Amino acid sequence: MQLDLTLYVITDSTYHTADTLLTAVDQACAGGATLVQLREKESGGRDYLALAQRVKQVTDRHHTPLIIDDRVDVALACGASGVHVGASDLPVAVCRRLLGADKIVGATAKTVEAAKAAYADGADYLGTGAIFPTTTHVATRVTPVPMLDAICRAVPIPVVAIGGLNADNMDVLADSPIAGVAVVSAVMKASDPRAAAAHLKQKVLAMRAAR
């Protein structure tokens, strides 16, 4: 599966109903999101799956791959394109074994050592951050841009920057060899998620072209 990390939109249900979340995802995809991750930290498996099935109907209409955060079982059950796991989730190697070679496995990596280990275990891409403090309910630790750059150089798989990024502050990544940016609030909290996604994608493409 071709992997385009240019604009990776991650959901957050804390300020959405199920219906408004679906609308935001639909608009984000219409605006150019190249990958969508459903992240439901507080949901049990049954509710997570029910929402994932609805979100996948939206992303499928836009031919946008859907990634499930943490839960390999939910990813398998809803037919998602893959899963993203952090340090406290199932190991990357286990995810790869369960999902097979054709699915996407993403991993969080905050150090060069973690990046190399994730790559060796079969990760397709890495998420590194937080570049800035975030407003999401997920606990984060700021990752300096030089560390992000070192991770990019250490592995042959693409790396996406995450954490507090928006159209006003992503210029700090102008010289970084990242494959794209991952955003949460910049799209999910936007009054017009479609326009926000389009603007963010344009900025990422412009930065990449200028390197």
Helices and strands in order:
Elements: E1 7-10, H1 18-31, E2 35-38, H2 45-61, E3 66-69, H3 72-78, E4 82-85, H4 92-99, E5 104-108, H5 112-120, E6 125-129, H6 145-154, E7 159-162, E8 180-183, H7 185-188, H8 193-210
Parallel strand pairs: 1-2, 1-8, 2-3, 3-4, 4-5, 5-6, 6-7, 7-8
Helix pairs in contact: 1-2, 1-8, 2-3
In words, what does this structure look like?
With 211 residues, this protein is of the alpha/beta class. 41% of the residues lie in helices and 16% in strands. The chain has eight helices and eight strands; from the N terminus they run βαβαβαβαβαβαββαα. It has helices at residues 18-31, 45-61, 72-78, 92-99, 112-120, 145-154, 185-188, 193-210; strands spanning 7-10, 35-38, 66-69, 82-85, 104-108, 125-129, 159-162, 180-183. Strands 1-2-3-4-5-6-7-8 form an eight-stranded parallel beta barrel, surrounded by seven helices. β2 (35-38), α2 and β3 form a beta-alpha-beta unit. The protein is globular, with a radius of gyration of 16 Å.
In terms of DSSP E residues, the strand content is: 15-25%
Average pLDDT: 95
- Stretches where pLDDT is under 50 for at least 5 consecutive residues are none
- What's the alpha carbon Rg, rounded to whole Å? 16 Å
Distance between the termini: 26 Å
Brief synopsis:
This protein has 211 residues and is α/β, with parallel strands linked by helices. The chain has helices spanning 18-31, 45-61, 72-78, 92-99, 112-120, 145-154, 185-188, 193-210, and strands at 7-10, 35-38, 66-69, 82-85, 104-108, 125-129, 159-162, 180-183. The radius of gyration is 16 Å and the shape is globular.
